[in-house]
Amino acid sequence: MTKENRRVQMTKRMIAEAMTELCERGETVSKISVSELCAIAEVNRSTFYKYYDGPEALFGEIEEKFFSELSAFMIPNVNADIATGMREMCSYLSQKKRIARIVINNNVNPNFPEKLFSLPALRNSADIFLKQCFGKRLNEKQTKYIYLFFVYGGYNLMRVWLNSENAEPYEEIADTIVTLLNSFGTR
Fold it and tell me: What global pTM score does this model have?
């Protein structure tokens, strides 16, 4: 890696850290100005615009990095059962709580939960789980609704957990989600 590349990476890291700091203070991405980011990161506006079109583009890069790292973390469990998949995702979120909170709390994309639960390890686990629990008792539309219930219910449960001051261990929250899912399959 050249000195120039290291400098670019360091500058982008400082700008991303400024975004993280502002989000932790309760600022929303849409209200964060380039001037605020530059003041905290101690870079010029022209430097910021060299890499990003605006704060939303910066947040998009932070989100993509989060997804990329989470996906890589979960790859060994791509064919695991739903309990293992949920535990691995909750383990990662627990380890990366700071960035997970920022990405989850500041996301304005209404399909974000579906994107999160569409990671191959979780999607494969959920598909296997639904087939095991319900077999052919459900039509395609019912299966979709149960999956969406799992996605949005699980997402909101994890969001509340991540923002809790005295959060339960990640294993407990993962097991709670799986227990709720299992209760559907026994009906």
Answer: 0.85
